[in-house]
Write a structure and sequence with these properties.
Strand order of the largest sheet: 1-2-6-5-4-3
Number of strands: 6
Distance between the termini: 14 Å
CATH superfamily: TT1751-like domain
Order of helices and strands: EEHEHEHEEHH
Strand content: 25-35%
CATH architecture: 2-Layer Sandwich
CATH class: Alpha Beta
CATH topology: TATA-Binding Protein
Shape: globular
Length: about 130
């Protein structure tokens, strides 16, 4: 499944299990989960229904800071985010912004290409490990 700038893979686990597995994978790689946003819980608190939908914001300043030094506007898209959501058939999915797309969006210098490729590969690896894909 692809949308402009987004990467999505299916998970072999429930949404809740996938979120937990993502947090563990992020920690294994020396990054910090800064926060988790549970959109479904917020909806429930307002008396509204929403299938499981949770965002993890995470990163490592050693990777993100050089990108912001190159162009501070990328700070609107950092830290990195992984969205876990469940579709109408109760299948869980993981979606994230493609770092290469983010680099193009912000007009980062071509010299940042390798860093962005590394981030893209890292996100893919984290998501695949957590999703069992």
């Amino acid at each position: 499944m692809a949308k402009d700038g987004l990467v999505t893979i299916g998970s072999a686990h429930t949404a809740a299990e996938t979120v937990g597995r993502l947090a563990a994978e992020i920690g294994k790689r020396g990054m910090t989960v800064f926060t988790r946003i549970d959109h479904a819980a917020a909806a429930r608190a307002e008396g509204m229904a929403l299938r499981p939908t949770e965002v993890l914001l995470f990163g490592n300043p050693k990777a993100g800071t050089p990108l912001m030094q190159a162009d501070q506007t990328i700070g609107i898209d950092l830290p990195l985010k992984l969205l876990v959501w469940e579709d109408a058939d109760s299948k869980a999915w993981v979606t994230w912004n493609d770092p290469l797309w983010l680099g193009a969006r912000h007009g980062l210098p071509t010299g940042e290409g390798e860093r962005l490729k590394g981030m893209a590969a890292g996100l893919q690896a984290i998501a695949a490990a957590a999703a069992g894909a």
